[in-house]
From TrEMBL:
Keywords: Isomerase. SUPFAM superfamilies: Aspartate/glutamate racemase. This is Aspartate racemase. Pfam families: Asp_Glu_race. The lineage of its organism: Bacteria, Bacillati, Actinomycetota, Actinomycetes, Bifidobacteriales. Belongs to the aspartate/glutamate racemases family. InterPro entries: Asp/Glu/hydantoin_racemase, Asp/Glu_race, Asp_race.
Length: 202
């Protein structure tokens, strides 16, 4: 069985959700509750990362998370993941700084959207996720429309998504991708679903 490495703290509630979801997914796949995954967590300071992003110091973010990934690799992890959308702004740069293979939330969320046959999604997240195109460009390249709130609605999406989604249960997230109804935004935007990705735990 593979040893999973989690770059956590992005934020703490999401880290716990990933931990539980991975264990549940493995036990479901093995049809046994007497099986536990080997999981290592390297928790970072989320607010330190946000400060780097505010300064647009992307090399510093890459180095910070790349070092965290290397810590996981030296601890025996076979692959790693980051339990948040935001650091995927510099996913490729982080991957270049570590020999540990990293799973991408964007790729996993896209695969899940395709599996579900979805064609138009709304994206909610931190201000960094909302103002960069790393999510939308990947989905649009696959023929899936990705829309975001505008104006005051966009500004209010970060606290709403952060407070509600980061504390969502594993049952809500399904261990794969967080698909939630968004009555405050969907009617005006024509969304069929809203999305915040998570790597498949299976």
């Amino acid at each position: 069985m593979k040893h999973v490495g989690i770059i956590g703290g992005i934020g703490p509630e999401a880290t716990m959700g990933y931990y539980r979801a991975i264990i549940a997914g493995v036990q479901q796949a093995k049809h046994s509750t007497a099986v536990l995954s080997e999981i290592s967590i390297r928790s970072i300071d989320m607010y330190r990362m946000f400060s780097m992003l505010d300064r647009e110091d992307y090399p510093a973010v890459e180095a910070y998370l790349g070092d965290a990934a290397e810590d996981l690799r030296h601890g025996g992890a076979d692959f790693g993941l980051m339990c948040g959308n935001t650091p995927h702004i510099v996913f490729d740069g982080i991957q270049r700084r570590t020999a540990l293979p990293l799973l991408s939330i964007v790729t996993s969320a896209l695969q899940e959207a395709q599996r579900r046959g979805l064609h138009r999604l709304g994206l909610l997240g931190t201000k960094f996720t909302m103002h960069h195109d790393f999510f939308t460009s990947a989905f649009q390249a696959a023929g899936i429309a990705m829309v975001t709130p505008e104006g005051p609605t966009r500004s209010s999406s970060m606290p709403v998504s952060w407070t509600s989604w980061s504390k969502a249960s594993c049952a809500t997230r399904h261990g794969r991708c967080c698909w939630v109804s968004s009555p405050a935004w969907s009617p005006n935007m024509g969304w069929t679903a809203s999305c915040s990705g998570a790597p498949n735990s299976r």
